[in-house]
C-alpha cells in the first residue's frame, strides 16, 4: 500500500480494512455508474502536483469514478489514495428507478458490498479508503484528522442546498491549487447548475465546464 494511503487508512481505522477482505465473486464485471469514466477525472489525477495526492470522491455508488481515479493514480505511479465517501444507501432517484440497480438485504441496499467487491476485483485496494458516511459528516471527520485533498469530486445528492453545502464543506479541506470537480452540470439537474454558479461567484473563481463536469481551481482570487 502506498504510504499516503496507509497513513490515511491508519488514521481513520487503525488497521488496513482490506487485509482479510474477500469479494463475493471472482470475476470483475463492468462497473455500472454515471459519468465515472469521464476523461477529466483521469487527466486531473494524472497531472496532479498539489498537496498530498489525496483525492476525495464524494458520492461513489458502485465505484466507477473511484476506480477511474485510483487507476489513474496507480498508472502514474503516484503515492496517494482515493477516499471514497458515500452513505451507500442510494439517492431518491435510484430508489424510484425500479429494476435491479441494487439488491436489498433486510431492507438495506447492498451498495457498500458491491463497491468493496468492485474495488477489490479491480486490484485497487491499495489505493482506496472507503468512508461509509454522509458527505457532510465525512468532510468533518477528514477535517478533524487534518486531511487535505488535492482533488475533490462531488457527485452525491443533486439538490441545490446539498450541492452547495458539499462544495462549502469540501472547499475547506481542498489544498491551495487543488481542484473541486462536480458532476451533472446539465439542465436536467437545475440545482447542480445553480449551486455551481452561486459557489463560483462566492469564491470569486471562474467555472470551467467540461460537460457534464464543472471544475473550480482553488487559487487566490
Ligand atoms: C450519482 S451516484 C454517484 C455515481 C458515481 N460517482 C459513479 O461514478 O458512478 C450518487 C451517490 O451519492 C450517494 N449520496 C447521496 N446523498 C448522499 C449524502 N448526503 N452523503 C453521502 N452520499 C450520498 C448515493 O448513495 C449514491 O451512491
**Spans where pLDDT lies below 50 across 5 or more residues:** none
Q: What does the average pLDDT come to?
A: 95
Strand order in the sheet with the most strands: 5-2-1-6-7-9-8
Which CATH class? Alpha Beta
- How many discrete structural domains? 1
The appropriate CATH architecture is 3-Layer(aba) Sandwich
- Tell me the distance between the termini: 37 Å
Short description:
By secondary structure, this protein is α/β, with parallel strands linked by helices.
Can you tell me about this structure?
The chain has 221 residues and is of the alpha/beta class. It contains 8 helices and 9 strands. Strand 8 and strand 9 (213-217) form a beta hairpin. Helix 2 (39-46) runs parallel beside helix 3 and helix 6 (135-144) runs parallel beside helix 7 (160-171). The radius of gyration is 16 Å and the shape is globular. The model has no long low-confidence stretch (mean pLDDT 95). The site of S-adenosylmethionine has 20 residues, from helix 3 and strand 2.
Amino acid at each position: 500500500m502506498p504510504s499516503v494511503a496507509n497513513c490515511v487508512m491508519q488514521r481513520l481505522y487503525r488497521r488496513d480494512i482490506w487485509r482479510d477482505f474477500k469479494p463475493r465473486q471472482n470475476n470483475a464485471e463492468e462497473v455500472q455508474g454515471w459519468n465515472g469514466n469521464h476523461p477529466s477525472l483521469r487527466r486531473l489525477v494524472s497531472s496532479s502536483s498539489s498537496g498530498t495526492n489525496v483525492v476525495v470522491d464524494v458520492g461513489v455508488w458502485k465505484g466507477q469514478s473511484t476506480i477511474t481515479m485510483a487507476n489513474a493514480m496507480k498508472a502514474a505511479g503516484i503515492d496517494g489514495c482515493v477516499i471514497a465517501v458515500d452513505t451507500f444507501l442510494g439517492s431518491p432517484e435510484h430508489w424510484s428507478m425500479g429494476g435491479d440497480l441494487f439488491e436489498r438485504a433486510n431492507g438495506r441496499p447492498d451498495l457498500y458490498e458491491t463497491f468493496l467487491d468492485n474495488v477489490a476485483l479491480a486490484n485497487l485496494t491499495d489505493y482506496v479508503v472507503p468512508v461509509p458516511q454522509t458527505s457532510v459528516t465525512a468532510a468533518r471527520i477528514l477535517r478533524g484528522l487534518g486531511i487535505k485533498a488535492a482533488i475533490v469530486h462531488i457527485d452525491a445528492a443533486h439538490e441545490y442546498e446539498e450541492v452547495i453545502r458539499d462544495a462549502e464543506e469540501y472547499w475547506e479541506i481542498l489544498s491551495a491549487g487543488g481542484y473541486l470537480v462536480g458532476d451533472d452540470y446539465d439542465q436536467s439537474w437545475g440545482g447542480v447548475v445553480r449551486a455551481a454558479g452561486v459557489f463560483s461567484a462566492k469564491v470569486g473563481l471562474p467555472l470551467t465546464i467540461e460537460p457534464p463536469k464543472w471544475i473550480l481551481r482553488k487559487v487566490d482570487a
